[in-house]
Amino acid sequence: MFPRRSTQFRKAFDDLLDKAGVEQLVGLIDDLDRCLPDTAIETLEDVRLFVFTSRTAFVVAADEAMIEYAVRKHFPDLPDTTGPQTYARNYLEKLIQVPFRIPSLGDTETRIYVTLSSSAPNSARTTQRSTL
To answer: Which are the contacts of 78, defined by CB distance < 8 A and separation ≥ 6?
Structure first.
């Protein structure tokens, strides 16, 4: 986007937020890694339009390795000096300003999660029946 158009976009978007009475806009993008690589890149490029707007933030939930794969697939002809892995990492680091990485569950945590999630609906149904 050209600087002039970028400035016009930011001003128009700010005016829109003012008219809507929105003090802070937060966009949530979940499961981006489940999209096709081209769709994931298009979405990230759309988010990039808003990076320099005021009062706007995005939370992107995705498997980082899958998004890096999408970047490498989208830009297959990168020069050897840049390297596809390095470029993919740099692309994400410039776009995602505050990364928050959630570690994978281990075996014990997975068992606890499955046990708790499978028993929760039964206890909720029992509570509803007893109050009727």
So the answer is: 84, 87
The pLDDT-based confidence of 118 (bands split at 50, 70, 90) is confident
Contact 68, 99 (CB under 8 A): no
pTM above 0.90, yes or no: no
Residue 28, C-beta contacts closer than 8 angstroms, at least 6 positions apart = 58, 59, 61
DSSP string, 30-77: --GGGS-HHHHHHHHHHHHTTTTSTTEEEEE---HHHHHHHHHHHSTT
Chain centre distance of CA 25: 15
Q: Where are the domains of the chain?
A: 3-101, 105-132
CA distance 30 to 62: 7
Q: Chain-centre distance of CA 59, in angstroms? A: 5
Residue 113, pLDDT > 60, answer yes
Q: How far apart are the first and last CA of the chain?
A: 60
**Predicted local confidence at residue 81, as pLDDT:** 60
* Nearest by Cα to 95 from 39, 43, 25: 43
